[in-house]
Amino acid sequence: MTPEVLSTYPQIQGLRVAKVVKYLQQNYWVEINHPNTRLFVFEKGVDDQGKPIQIVLPSQDDYEDTPYLLSKAVNLLSVIESVSFQEIVNAIYSNR
């Protein structure tokens, strides 16, 4: 499914940026400096063309595009980790 559709799921609506950031940090994603302070950017590994794989998150939960960016991040993580979208959501929620 597309991030647009996934962003309407209740699991995404309840997800918080801080939980996703913590999950990324604990799974060895590296935060990189970005000139826009409204964004967090994380990198890990490279794609088939040798470009860094990046996840872009909003810096706050209350931005209009937060659900979209969170669903996009979870979707990418599910592809990279070869698990379902729901498994990533569950891992983020259960992450301590």
Task: Give a description of the structure.
This protein has 96 residues and is α+β, with helices and mostly antiparallel strands. It has one domain. 45% of the residues lie in helices and 19% in strands. It has helices spanning 3-6, 10-13, 17-26, 66-80, 85-94; strands at residues 30-32, 39-46, 52-58. The longest helix is centred in the C-terminal third of the chain and has 15 residues, at 66-80. The relative contact order is 0.21.
Q: Which SSEs are present, and which pair or pack?
A:
Blueprint (H helix, E strand, L loop, with lengths): L2 H4 L3 H4 L3 H10 L3 E3 L6 E8 L5 E7 L7 H15 L4 H10 L2
Antiparallel strand pairs: 1-2, 2-3
Helix pairs in contact: 4-5
Beta-strand percent range: 15-25%
- End-to-end Cα distance: 28 Å
Low-pLDDT sequence parts = none
Strand order of the largest sheet: 1-2-3
What's the helical proportion of residues? 40-55%
- Biggest pleated sheet: 3 strands, antiparallel
Give the topology string: H per helix, E per strand: HHHEEEHH
Q: How confident overall, as mean pLDDT?
A: 90
- Count of domain modules: 1
Q: What would the principal axes of the Cα set say about the shape?
A: globular
Descriptive key words:
alpha+beta; about 100 residues; about 20% strand; 3 strands
Summarize the structure.
This protein is α+β, with helices and mostly antiparallel strands and 96 residues long. 45% of the residues lie in helices and 19% in strands.
